Amino acid sequence: MRIGYGYDSHRFEDGRRLILGGVEIPGRGLSGHSDADALTHAVTDALLGAAGLGDIGTHFPPTDVEWKGADSLSLLARVVRLLESENYQVVNVDATVVAEQPRIGPHVDAMRGRLAEVIGIAPTHVSIKGKSNEGMGWIGREEGIAVHAVVLIDRVEDQDPVHARHSPALPEL
Ligand code: MG
């Protein structure tokens, strides 16, 4: 099993839609090259990190016009397929959205459902929590939002060669 951590932050920008976890939420939108879905970006980076496969910026460069306005769920789906091609399956996701506003609580179940569907796991294995920053710093001044995410992935193979190499032989009884 391998653990991955992802972080993302985006600045608020007037005139844009707010998309988090693939769900449109009433409120000020976020600036960004893609749909600026910071939650999906953090989860995607955590998955890439867990597998040791780089980061979202190298796979989907912001300078590449192909990803302009991109649906971040489609980027997540590509990364899930990449992990599957490396024989990894996702076990669970846990994410925290840090924002002074809007309150994400009413939208958490919808976001869990969207992310779980794209990742191919049960919604009960996707956790999303909202936190305010108690008015402190740039998040407290409502300049933007931050997201932290951790994931656990597991190798599908019966025998992990790395694990086998480092495990001492069982003593004979
Ligand atoms: Mg981002």
Please outline the helices and strands.
Elements: E1 2-13, E2 18-20, E3 23-25, E4 29-30, H1 38-51, H2 56-59, H3 72-85, E5 88-98, H4 108-119, E6 126-131, H5 137-140, E7 144-155, H6 161-166
Parallel strand pairs: 5-6
Antiparallel strand pairs: 1-4, 1-7, 2-3, 5-7
Q: CATH H level: which superfamily?
A: 2-C-methyl-D-erythritol 2,4-cyclodiphosphate synthase
Q: Which CATH architecture would you pick? A: 2-Layer Sandwich
End-to-end separation in angstroms reads: 28 Å
Please tally the β strands and state the result.
7
The figure for the number of domains is 1
Low-pLDDT residue intervals, each spanning 5 or more residues: none
Order of helices and strands: EEEEHHHEHEHEH
What is the CATH C-level name?
Alpha Beta
Major sheet summary line: 5 strands, mixed
Tally of helical segments: 6
- Rg estimate, integer Å: 18 Å
The third-level CATH topology is 60s Ribosomal Protein L30, Chain: A
Quote the average pLDDT: 92
Strand content: 25-35%
Given the C-alpha coordinates, what overall shape results?
A: globular
General description of the model:
- The protein is α+β, with helices and mostly antiparallel strands.
- It has a single domain (2-165), classed as 60s Ribosomal Protein L30, Chain: A, CATH 3.30.1330.
- The protein is built from 6 helices and 7 strands; from the N terminus they run ββββαααβαβαβα.
- The chain has helices at residues 38-51, 56-59, 72-85, 108-119, 137-140, 161-166; strands spanning 2-13, 18-20, 23-25, 29-30, 88-98, 126-131, 144-155.
- The strands form 2 sheets. Strands 4-1-7-5-6 form a 5-stranded mixed sheet.
- α4 links the parallel β5 (88-98) and β6 (126-131).
- It is globular, with a radius of gyration of 18 Å.
- Residues 8, 10, 32, 38, 41 line the site of magnesium ion (MG).
- Magnesium ion binds next to β1 and α1.
